[in-house]
């Protein structure tokens, strides 16, 4: 599955590792993180920890509210119990502007897809899960890039409950699961 990556220029697959406790998932994550092309940081659990409070950020169509959410999520990951580091072992400090821009572009793409697929007249709104997911994606891509890797993997069992959102966000051609039992 890891050998079937997208050619240069195409969107690469994204990997989500699903495993029960004591299944060896963290061990496997650290091994896969050693690959030259795959970044596998300690799981950030952004969806788990921010979905219950996302409404406190207000309307995420509002740029200021979205920027605040980006800052909170970046800070959350920067203060992760297991530091995220770059290829030189330095703690990562996320560029909020790049994360915000990537997330806004992803949300615009999703809205465009929905507008086309559903032939909707008027504005298209996204569920709050997509705003967090777009920031999550931007953070994971940023992490991979600062580590000179093209692919990333998230080992967070909790992401499985967002499968429908992941599927719409990434599409069948990109979304990959690694199951450990």
Automatic annotation (TrEMBL):
Protein name: Protein-tyrosine sulfotransferase
Domain of life per record: Eukaryota
Organism: Helicotheca tamesis
Pfam families: Sulfotransfer_3
InterPro entries reported in the protein's UniProt record: P-loop_NTPase
Signal peptide: none
Organism phylogeny: Eukaryota, Sar, Stramenopiles, Ochrophyta, Bacillariophyta
């Amino acid at each position: 599955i890891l050998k079937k990556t997208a050619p240069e220029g195409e969107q690469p697959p994204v990997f989500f590792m699903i495993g029960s406790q004591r299944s060896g998932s963290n061990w496997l994550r650290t091994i896969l993180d050693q690959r030259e092309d795959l970044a596998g940081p300690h799981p950030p659990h952004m969806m788990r920890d921010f979905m219950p409070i996302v409404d406190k950020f207000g309307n995420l169509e509002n740029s200021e509210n979205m920027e605040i959410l980006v800052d909170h999520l970046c800070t959350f990951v920067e203060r992760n119990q297991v530091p995220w580091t770059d290829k030189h072992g330095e703690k990562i400090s996320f560029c909020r502007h790049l994360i915000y821009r990537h997330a806004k572009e992803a949300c615009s793409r999703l809205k465009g897809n929905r507008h086309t697929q559903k032939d909707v007249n008027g504005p298209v709104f996204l569920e709050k899960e997509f705003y967090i997911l777009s920031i999550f994606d931007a953070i994971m891509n940023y992490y991979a890039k600062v580590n000179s890797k093209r692919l990333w993997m998230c080992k967070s069992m909790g992401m499985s409950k967002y499968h429908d959102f992941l599927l719409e966000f990434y599409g069948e051609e990109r979304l990959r699961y690694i199951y450990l039992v």
